[in-house]
Amino acid sequence: MEDRIGQSVRSALDGEPRVDAAPPREWPVLLDRTFGPDDIAVVRHEITRLLAAVGFAGDRQHGFVLAVNEVLTNVVLHAGGTGRVVLKIEDGSVWCVVTDSGPGIPGAYLDGLHTPEAFEVGGRGLWLAHHLCDEVTTATGPIGTSIGLRIIVDSAG
């Protein structure tokens, strides 16, 4: 397995993964909270409300919230059950960063390009995120994972 500690794998708009270890600069924060198994629906509704409040609605907003929901669910099911979610705005984009202290993501699921088989159990959360978001960043290792989901608000219709 490839060592990806301290790095992030990005899916650029052209779909080509690249490694980027540069940390993002600080952005205005809309939401910063911890979550557990009983909080997924609450966080999903809170993010939907916050996005609508900044004028981001419609199908792209719903897809983004679905991607966030999948990542939150992965934390609960596969990474110890609790995590942190931060929702930020930067230069016409919304970022949602979800972190956990789980064992890390297996390499087969990192690029988001593996299409899950029809009857395959699991493997759809990150795949969906890569298809619903304009950019997905991942930093993972044995002490936890951080996943960033970005969607461009300016192109929302």
TrEMBL record:
It holds the Pfam family HATPase_c_2. Keywords: Kinase, Serine/threonine-protein kinase, Transferase. One of its GO terms (molecular function) is protein serine/threonine kinase activity. The keyword Iron does not apply. Residues 1-20 are annotated as: Disordered. InterPro entries: Anti-sigma-factor_SerPK (IPR050267), HATPase_C_sf (IPR036890), HATPase_dom (IPR003594). Residues 37-150 form the Histidine kinase/HSP90-like ATPase domain. It comes from the Bacteria. This is Anti-sigma regulatory factor (Ser/Thr protein kinase).
